[in-house]
Design goal:
The chain is of the alpha/beta class and about 475 residues long. It folds into 2 domains: about 1-225, Rossmann fold; about 250-470, Rossmann fold (3-Layer(aba) Sandwich), CATH 3.40.50.880. It has helices at about 15-30, 45-50, 65-75, 105-110, 125-140, 155-170, 205-215, 220-225, 265-275, 310-315, 315-325, 335-340, 455-470; strands spanning about 1-5, 35-40, 55-60, 80-85, 115-120, 145-150, 175-180, 250-255, 275-280, 295-300, 330-335, 345, 365, 370-375, 380-390, 400-410, 410, 420-425, 430-440, 440-445, 450. β5 (about 115-120), α5 (about 125-140) and β6 form a beta-alpha-beta unit. The longest helix has 16 residues, at about 455-470. It starts with a strand and ends in a 7-residue tail after the last helix.
């Protein structure tokens, strides 16, 4: 099995478009493609899944230990012919300027996989070769094996680029020169982003993309790139399902998954399953009732503000979620799920509008937390976070340390002091505040925690859900 990492010198170079085009072409060749995304992003994995038909997993060397990154890769390449890993930002960009932590280069080294650099060649000629040469020499342990030039203006432009590479960086194979084509841009909308759930790629777009990639990119050369031995080769593959931890106790955990709640790390769900959970998905948008027989609930992130009116109108679901939380059911909510549990949201954008609305009227939501949420025209928070639990919670005991990511364009009113705070939050090693709000057995936060950073969290959550379920009368709905 081969694995390739698609990176770029910087964001906006076209690596997502090129990645999707390569995935589509390889699939049309009859290959099973295992998709991955470096970093904490939720948007690109959705596109990967639509194209390949397989879940796309996040590989993050800052949030998760190296062994966990390898484990995720090994587990999710079973049955695949090739793994395609899309990078994040620039090849060497990570959490800071002094280390490789959180970068595409770090993951490429962990996987021992060759890197294909997507370079935006607009307004560049021979200088593009100098740029590639710099990336090749920056870290000799990163194998930059190929380059794809994007936004190429003409055949003459392509010829100059190839000549410059052959003269200055002959060890890096020019895999293709993709002409400028505005029609191949992936649409963006809310917050500058659009999710695969909200706007699936049209067949016509994929056809056009596959045509361009197949005509202008050397796919056979890509498949023949010399590589170091990837970790999947020559090693025993882990089983698709490992023995359940914690004595085999099982409980059903309801996970919100629909157009409003589509941001969840797939590894979080895997770890919950391995800890003994049966994951049952439900839709706060469309379902009138919670699933039967559940012992806990997971409300992940997404864009609930886009669907606030529909969520608000589903009073049956809101009532059951309120009742479940009041009964003491363990509930974990992050970012969009946290917003859903607030009093309501204002200033939101509608699905038909790409800009933030000026309206200030509050659309009521679940109301477990006594604060309202306001959408902002600019990003409020972005970046890696580390948390230490300051008390015992449904995710672990006091002192537990976990890592995650924060990204949102909203802000909440100041939480009343009587609401317990259980996260001590650090950014780049510096404490920046307290978060992680608890009401009964409901723990909510703006942070997306990755359970791979502290796998005991999944076991703790499942254990608490089992305890709650076992304490309920047999006739109880939950």
């Amino acid at each position: 099995m081969k694995a390739i990492v698609i990176a770029a010198p910087m964001s906006g170079s076209g690596k997502t478009t090129v990645t999707l085009g390569i995935m589509e072409c390889l699939k049309r060749k009859g290959l099973a493609v295992a998709p991955f995304k470096v970093g904490p992003d939720f948007i690109d994995p959705g596109w990967h899944r639509l194209v390949t038909g397989r879940p796309s997993l996040n590989l993050d060397g800052w949030m998760c230990p190296e062994r966990f990154v390898r484990e995720t890769f090994l587990l999710n390449t079973q049955g695949a012919d090739i793994a395609v890993v899309e990078g994040v930002m620039g090849l060497f960009d990570g959490i800071d300027g002094a280390s490789e932590a959180g970068s595409t280069a770090q993951v490429a080294k962990i996987l021992k996989s060759p890197v294909i650099l997507v370079v935006d060649a607009k307004s560049q000629a021979r200088s593009a070769a100098a740029l590639v040469q710099g990336f090749v020499r920056f870290d000799s342990k990163v194998q930059v094996a190929g380059v794809v030039f994007n936004n190429v203006g003409s055949a003459n432009h392509a010829g100059i680029l190839r000549e410059a590479m052959e003269t200055s960086v002959p060890e890096v194979k020019v895999l293709g020169c993709i002409p400028r084509n505005e029609q191949l841009r992936i649409p963006s909308r809310h917050l500058g982003l659009v999710t695969a759930e909200d706007n699936p790629l049209p067949v016509e777009f994929l056809d056009s993309l596959a045509t361009v990639i197949s005509e202008h990119l050397d796919l056979d050369g890509l498949l023949l790139l010399d590589t170091l031995t990837p970790p999947a080769c020559g090693q025993k593959q882990p089983s698709a399902r490992r023995p359940v931890k914690g004595g085999g106790a099982r409980t059903r955990i309801a996970v919100a998954r629909d157009r409003a709640f589509c941001f969840v790390y797939e590894d979080n769900l895997r770890l919950l399953r391995e800890a003994g959970a049966e994951i049952v998905e439900f839709s706060p948008l469309n379902d009138l009732h919670l699933p039967l027989g559940i012992g806990g609930m997971y409300l992940p992130g997404g864009y609930p503000e886009l669907f606030a009116e529909t969520l608000s109108a589903n009073q049956s679901m809101i009532g059951e979620i309120k009742a479940a939380i009041e009964s003491g059911m363990p509930v974990y909510a992050e970012c969009g799920g946290f917003i859903y549990l607030s009093r309501g949201v204002s200033g939101q954008a509608s699905p038909e509008n790409s800009t933030h609305s000026d309206r200030r009227d509050l659309i009521p939501l679940v109301g477990i937390f006594p604060v309202s949420t306001r959408m902002l025209p600019r990003r409020k928070a972005l970046g890696y976070r580390e948390v230490e639990l300051s008390g015992d919670t449904i995710l672990g005991l006091r002192g537990t340390i976990a890592r995650g990511h924060e990204f949102h364009y909203s802000e909440m009113e100041e939480m009343p002091q009587e609401v317990e705070r259980l996260y001590q939050v650090r950014k780049n090693g510096t404490v920046i505040g307290a978060e992680g709000y608890r009401y009964r057995n409901c723990l909510a936060s703006y942070l997306h925690l990755h359970f791979g950073s502290c796998t005991e969290m999944a076991g703790a959550f499942v254990k608490n859900c089992c305890t709650f379920k076992n304490d309920q009368p047999q006739s109880s709905h939950v």
